[in-house]
## 1
Amino acid sequence: MAQAWKCTGLRWSAEGPVLVWDGGRRSALTWGKRVAFGVAEGGVRTCVGARGHACPVRAAVPGRSTGARCEECARLDRAHSVAADTIADDPRPYRVYLAWFGPGLLKVGITAEERGSARLLEQGAVCFTWLGTGPLMAARRTEELLRAALGVPDRIPYVVKRAVRAALPETEAERTAEVAALHARAVRLGDWPESLERSPCQPVDHAGVFGLAGLPSAIGEVSELVAGGAVSGRLVAAAGPDLHLLTEGAGTVVLDTRLMTGWELVPAGSEQVTVPVRQYKAPPGVQSGLF
C-alpha cells in the first residue's frame, strides 16, 4: 500500500505558494509543476482539530467543507479569534487594509502588524494598500467606519474572486486605481480613532506573485474530494488557497486546497481529474512524497 500523506494547507512564503504536510514537510509550488494526488480508497475525511490539538473523536466531516472541522472543534477554533470578535485585549498593533480582487470588488479588513502582507496573500488580494496602524479596537472601529460610511464589505466570497481572475485589467495602474480612489475617500472621513496612525496610499500589486498574466479562463472548480478520486494538472497560477491547474484534455480547473485537509492522500493513479467538478455555466468573465 502506498504511503499516505495529510495536507495541513497552503502557505505563502517569500518564494511563493507552498503546500505543508503533517510532520512539517513542505512542497514548493512553481508555475508549470505537475500537481497530482489521489485520495486513499475507502478513506474518510476526518476533522483536523482545533488550535493545534487533534479532534478527540476523529469526527467525520463533509467533503465540501473548507474548514474540515466538526462542529465542536470549529467552535473551539473560533473561541479566541480576532476574526470572530472574541478577543478585545490583544496588545499587538494591528493594520487596517483596503484590498481589491477585481473591478468593483473591494473590501476592508485588519491584520496583525507582525504578519506583514501574509493575510492579503492568503485571501488572494490582487492588490491592496494599508490604511492605518494602531491598537486592535481602534483598527476594528476604523473597519466599521468604512463599512458604514462607504459601504465597503469585510468579506468577498471566493467564488466571486475566482470568477474574475482571468479577466483582470492588464496594467498595474488599472488594477490599483480603485484601491487608490477608495483610500482617498477613506482619509476624508471624520471620526477616525485618534490612536490609529494613518498610512499613505502605497498600493501593492500581487498579479505577478499569483501568476495571473495571461491566465486562461477556468472551466470549473473542484467541489469536493472523494475516496478513490484523483486530481492531476499543471500549475498555471495560484491565489489565496486556490490552485489553477491545466488538466489533461479538460482545460483549467480551480482547486481550493482547503478541500485537501482531513484526507489521506496518496500518489495519483490517474492523469485525469476524477473527483467532482462544478462546471461553470459560462467562461468566467468579468516521489519522496506526492510531488
## 2
Amino acid sequence: MNERTNQERPDTVSRKNGTDAPSSSETGDGQPVTDSVSEENGDERHSQTTCPECHGRLRRADDDVDAVCDDCGLVVSDATLDTNIKLYTPNGTGDQDSRVGPASTNLLHDKGLSTMIGWQNTDAKGNALSGEQRQQMRRLRRWDERFRRRSSADRNLMHALGEINRMASALGVPDSTRETAGVIYRRALADGLVTGRAVESVATAALYAASRMDGVPRSTDEVSAVSRVEQIRVERAYRHVSRELGLEIPPTDPRSFIGRIASDVECTDATEREARRLAGIAVENGVHSGKHPVGIAAGALYAAAKQCDESLRQADIAHATDVSEMTIRNRYPEILAATDTEDE
C-alpha cells in the first residue's frame, strides 16, 4: 500500500478543464507552499490566483488561510469578495444577472433598503400558484406591509414623503429637489418640529425650501395650490422650519420665474430676453428688495413687451402669475426707472 505523508503530498493547481497538474515549491525552511487559483468549475469554488492590486502571483502555505502576493506583499483572504458591480435589471431582464438593487433614496421612509414581496402569484419558474399558496402569499404581503410601517415615525415619513412626491409631480420639480425636500423633512422630524403641526404643512414647507435652495423656486401661491393645507399654515411652517434648522436660503431671483411666465403667455423670445435683462438691472439696483419676486418678474415682462412693441395685456400676465394687475402697474415703472438710471 502506497501511503503519502503531508511532506510527500504533491500540490495541485485546479484548471478550468478539470485536470490536475502538479505544481509544488518549497520555502527556505522546507515548508511546502501552494498556489491558489480562483476559478469556478461547475459548483466547485476555488481561491483566486492573481493579486487584485498588481495582478502578481499569489502563494499560500498549507497551514495558512491567507495568500500573499510575491510582488507587492498584499495579504488576500481565502474568502475574498466579488468587487464587480453589475447594474440593476428589474426581473432579470438584462443580459447579465442582477447583483444589486436600486440606489438608496430619501424619498422612501426606509431609503429603499428593505425588501418587499412582489405582487405576482407565480413561483420562481413562472408557474401559477395554487389557491392555498395564493392565500398564504396574501397573508405574507399583509404582514410584510405592517412590519415595514410598524412605528409611528415610519408611518409619518411614508405619508409626508408621499405628499412631497405628489406635489413635486404637480409642480414639475426635478428629482434632485425632491431628494433635498426629503432630507429637510427628515431633519425636521428628527428635531421634533413636526409635533403640533400638520404633516402636510411641514412637507409643503420642506418642498418650498428645497426648491429655493436648488435654484428652481416656486412661489408660495403655486405650492399652496397643490397642497392640502391653507397658504398661511404653509408660510408659518416654512418660517419655523427654516429658523430652527438654520437653512441658508438665498433670496429668490425674479429672473427664475420669467421663463415659465413667458411660456404661459406665449410671448416672443426677444421679449423674454429683454425681460431677463430688465429684471437683472432691477435686482442690481435693489428694486426687488421687500417686494414679491413674481411681481418683479411680471412687471419686467410687461415692460419688455412695451419696449419690443409686442401686444401683451396686463390681464394675461396677471392670470399667468396669479398677481393683481395693480401690482404689475406699480412694478414696471420702477423697473423702467432703474433701467434709465443704468443707461445714464
## 3
Amino acid sequence: MTVPPHPPSVRLANLDLNLLVSLRELLRERNVTRAAARIGISQPAASAALSRLRRHFDDELLSRHPGGYVLTPLAAQLVDQVEGVCSAAERLFGTGHGFDPSTARRGFTLLVADYTVAVLGPALSAAAARRAPGVELRLRLVRESFSADIGETIRLIDGLIAPPAARFERPELRSTALFDDRWVCVVDAANPVAAGPDPILDLDELAAMPWVVPFAPDRGMSAAAPMTRQLARLGVEPDIRVRVESYLSVPYMVVGTNRVALLQERLARQVADGLGLVVLPCPGDPGPIRERLWWHTDLDPDPAHQWLRELLVELSATL
C-alpha cells in the first residue's frame, strides 16, 4: 500500500523553525563562531545546527577553503530565500503589537540601487542608530532586472526604493514619494567639451562621444535600463565603450578619458570634485527622476513598517 505524502502543514510542523535563524546567520557570516555570537547560542550549538541543516539539504552549505568557508552553489541560492522568509516571519509575529523604535529588536530589508545608498544611506543609517539602536538595516542592491513576479519579490521584503515603472502598477503594491532628482552629464575636466566658463553640450556632441553606461547587456541595451529610456528620449544611440553593473562605478570610468555618461545629479555632485569631473546640464528633455518607496499591502497595518515609511519620508525631505 502506498503511503500518502504528508500535507505541507504537517511537514512544516515537523520542522524546527529555529533552524531558519541559524541558517540565515550561517549564510551571512560564513563562520560558525560569529553566527553563534549573533544568535546568542554556544559555538557547539551552532555547529549542531549546521550539521542538521546539512543533513536536511543534503549539501555542505559552507565549504571549507584555505581562506575560510565559502557558500556552496545551493547555499548561494538559499541566501535571498532565507532572508525573505525570516523578514516575513518577523513581520508576521510583530503584527498587532505596538512598535517602540528605542527598544525594538527587528530587521528591515530594503531593495535599493547603490545610487540610493549614496544619497539616502548616510541619513538613514545615522537616524536608525540614534532612534532605533536595536534595529538591523539590510540593504540589498538591486539590478535593473527584476524577477517575473515583482509583487512576490516585494512581498518578501520591507520595501523597494525605485522610480515609478509599469511593472509596479499592481493592486497589491503601495508607494509613497521620497525625493526627486534629475539626469546630468559628467565628463572629465580635461575633456575639450568642458572648456570655457559655461560649457554646454548639445545632442550632436553627445551622439559623437564614447559612453559609459550602467546595466547595459553586451548585446544591445536593456529596455529596462534607465539609460535606455533617457537616451531614447534624447534620440541618442550611444557608442558604448564601458559597461558597468552599478551607478557608483560610472564616474570612475569617465575619469581621465574623453567619455561621457548620464548620472543622477545628487550622486554626480557628491563625487565630481574629488574625481576631477565636470557636471554639465543634459540637453533635450531626459525626464525627471522621482524616487518612491514601494511595499506590499500586507504591510499596511504593521506599526513597525509604518515607522519605517515615515522615517524614510522625513529623511528624504531633508535632502
